[in-house]
Amino acid sequence: MAENIFRWLILGLAWLTAIGGFVAQLSPPPLMPFLMREFGITHAESGLVMTLFSLPGLLVIVFGVLSDRFGAKQLGAVSLFSLILGSIIVAISPSFEWILLGRLLGGVGTQSITVVAPAIISQWFPPAELGTAMGIYGTGLPIAVVLAFDLLGRFGIAYGWRLPFYLEVAIGIVVLGLFWRFVRDGPLLQKRQNEIAHPATSLRKGLINHETWKIGVYFLLVMAGWTAFTTWAPTLLNESKGLDLAYATFLASVPMMMSLVCMPFIGWLSDRLRRRKLLILIGSTLTTSVILVIPYASGLTLILSFVILGVAFALIPAIVFSLAGETLGPGSAGTSFGILITCVSVGQTVAPYLVGLVRDMTGSLLYSFAAMSMFVGPSIIIAFLIKAR
To answer: Model pTM?
Structure first.
C-alpha cells in the first residue's frame, strides 16, 4: 500500500521536474521583441535562442543509456544543476553571445530531464496504467507554457527581460532539492534487473527497434511544428495582426490551457480504449489544419482556432510517451526515451530558426504559419505506419 501511494509522489516529482525544464525552455518567446531591440538581431538570429537550447538533445540518447545503467537520480540531479547554471548565465549576460552560451548549457539540463522524468514514471506504473500516468505527466508542458507566457512573460514585459531567468533559477533550486530527497528507482525496474544490459547492449537494442524510431520520427515532426509555433506565435500576432504583445502572448498560451484540461482524460481514455494510433492521427490532422487557418482568422474565430489547437495537441504527448515506455520495457526505458527525445531535438533545433528565416525573407504571416504546418503534416503518414491499435 505504501509503495502504491509513493508512486504517485514519484509521478508528482517527475511532473514538477519537467515543468521546471519546460519553463526554462519556453521563457524566451514572449521576450523576443525585447531581445531583438536590445541586441540588434534578426528573427532568424533570435530563433537561435530556442535552437541552441534544443541542440544538446541530439546527443541525449547517451544520457538515456546511462540512466538505465546508473540510475535516474544522479543523472536528474546533474541535469537540474546544469539548467540552473544556464539560467544564471542568461540572466547576467552582457551580450547576445553569452545568452547563447547560457541557453546551450541550460539545454543540456532540460533535454536530459525530458529523458529522466518519463523513464522514472515507466519504472513505477505498469503498461495498463501508463497512459493515465503519462496523461498527468504530459500536463507539465501546457502548465509550463502558461507559466512562461502568462506569468514570467508578463513579468519580463513589465520589469525587464532578465527577471524571468532569475525566477527560473529559484524554481530550479527548489526542484533540485525535492528531486534529490525523494526520487528512487521503481519496483518494475528492480524486478527486471536481469534485463538491464551493458550500456552498449541497451543502446543496440534500441537502435535496431523499428517501432522506437517510428514513434521518434512522428514526435520529431509534431514537436518541430509546435516548437516553432510557441516560439513565434506571440511575435507574429503582435507584428502582423497588431495585437498587444501581452494579449498575443496570452492567446498563444490558450492551446496549452486547453491541453492541460484535456490531457489527463486523453491518457485515461487511451488506457481504456487502447486506440492510441487513431488518437494521434486525429491530433496530427487537426494540428496541421488549424495552423493553416490561423493567418486568416480574427476575433472569435482566432480564439476558437487556438482552443481547437489545444484539444488537438492534448491527443498526442501522453500517447507517444506511453508507446515509447512500452516499446523496450522498464529495463531500457531510458534508452527508449533517449531515442525519442533525440528525434524531437532534431526538429526543435531546426524549426524555430527556419520559421524565423521564412519570416525575415518573406515578411508574410501566411508563409510563416505554412512553414510550421509543413513540419507537422508528414506526421500523419508516420502515424499510419506505427504498429499500435
So the answer is: 0.69
